[in-house]
Amino acid sequence: MDWPLVLGAMLSGLAVLLLLGLPVGFAFLTVTLFGAFEVLGGERGLVQLARNATQSMTSFQLAPIPLFILMGEILFQTGLAHRAIDAVDRVVTRIPGRLSVVTVFGGTIFAALSGSTIANTAMLGSTLLPGMLKKGYAPTLAMGPIMASGAIAMLIPPSALAVLVGSLTGISISSLLLAGVIPAVILSISFVGWIVLVVTLMPSLAPPEETHFMSLSDRWRPFAVYVLPLSIIFIIVIGSLLSGFATPTESAALGSVCAIGMGACYRALTIRRFFRALEETVKLSVMILFIIMTAQTFAQILSFSGATSGVIRVIQGFDFTPTAVLLAMIALLLLLGCFIDQVSMLMVTVPIFIPLASAAQIDPLLLGVVYLLTMEIGLLTPPFGLLLFVMRGVAPKEIRMKTIYAAALPFVTIKLLLLSVIVTVPSLATWLPNFLLD
């Protein structure tokens, strides 16, 4: 079979199966089974698929994924994350759009502890949204910061998706985890700046709150009790990586043990909550790992059929600059992000993008950060952005989907601006890992 036919058949078949509602993992498995049989030599192709699946599932590089997810689930199920958000709420005072600003600060803190965009958004939505709406905040100003800061968990370590990107692309996981720190901080600051600006210009979006006197001790004690101790988890995870004391897998294990220890110290970790955290961890991990199971064979099919080299030759024929190639990749990723989930985006594009980036001499670390940021944007872009539906689940029934879309729009714009800046100034993404790990 000619490579355009193979590429077209696999991608269109995948699209049809996803539109029919087949779960992502089964859709990829079906397409890969077909491709392995037709392209890799019938029964031999199916044997190769089984061999690749075994090799993928036994890869030590994938171990951080369930461990990082477990770390976040422990904090979520024990309620420690909610207590940390309440503590931040006490500290932030006398600023326009105060509760929206608290959402950004709290979301960034929890992102550095959980690594899960879904858990981050659900926790912020269930904790802060009812109070914000009750106090008269405009729904767009209440929901937008929740979704935007919830998605930051995609960038800031410990991000399970960063581990996945690193394992599939061959990019250093330690470097990729660190590369997301500066962009995540810039995003958080930009979100706060936007909130303060828009509320200053349109005060009706966030009515001023009554200020209740609190002593210095009452204001800062919860922060010292709940936020500062939890920051130890982040310090242990990142510090062990930077010092060379632990691999990403070992640092994830240390973080999980530390989260369990924190839950026990606060007497918030019960047997029931622990097993609930394990159950949610297994659900998310199996979904991700099931898709990874077919990744190697999917890439081999495209390579063996000549699709990978064919696409590279076509693009090289246009004599594009590396920046133009990167912009084309970004455009495709942003388009895919409107319709499919983040893991599927990786599966479809990695087999082609990685060889193409190598041929165009694009910095792999820069490409990894572009992947993370475009996937983060995809979480918030209609019609199928995942966090849009998470927000739909926690928002009051009278709030329509178009209001949720409108709430996400300004923050998607900020993320797109940051993406353009990173393409222009790649050192924003690459400086920190190069400085700390070289």
Indicate the topology.
Elements: H1 3-19, H2 24-39, H3 43-57, H4 64-77, H5 80-91, H6 98-114, H7 117-134, H8 139-151, H9 160-169, H10 173-179, H11 181-201, H12 216-242, H13 248-265, H14 271-292, H15 295-305, H16 307-317, H17 322-337, H18 342-359, H19 364-378, H20 386-394, H21 401-424, H22 427-437
Helix pairs in contact: 1-2, 2-3, 2-14, 2-15, 4-9, 4-13, 4-14, 5-6, 5-12, 6-7, 6-8, 6-11, 7-8, 7-20, 8-11, 8-21, 9-18, 9-19, 10-22, 11-21, 12-13, 15-18, 16-18, 17-18, 17-19, 18-19, 19-21
Provide a descriptive summary of the structure in words.
This protein has about 450 residues and is mainly alpha-helical. It has one domain (about 5-435). Helices cover about 80% and strands about 0% of the residues. It has helices at about 5-20, 25-40, 45-55, 65-75, 80-90, 100-115, 115-135, 140-150, 160-170, 175-180, 180-200, 215-240, 250-265, 270-290, 295-305, 305-315, 320-335, 340-360, 365-380, 385-395, 400-425, 425-435. α6 packs parallel to α8, α8 runs antiparallel to α11 (about 180-200) and α10 crosses α22 (about 425-435). The model has no long low-confidence stretch (mean pLDDT about 85).
Write down the domain tally.
1
The main sheet comes to: none
The rough form would be described as globular
Radius of gyration, in Å, reads 22 Å
According to DSSP, the number of beta strands is 0
User: What string, H for helix and E for strand, traces the elements in order?
Assistant: HHHHHHHHHHHHHHHHHHHHHH
* Relative strand content: under 5%
> How many helices does DSSP assign?
22
The proportion of residues forming helix, as a percent range, comes to over 70%
Let me know the average pLDDT: 83
Low-confidence parts? none
Distance between the termini: 46 Å
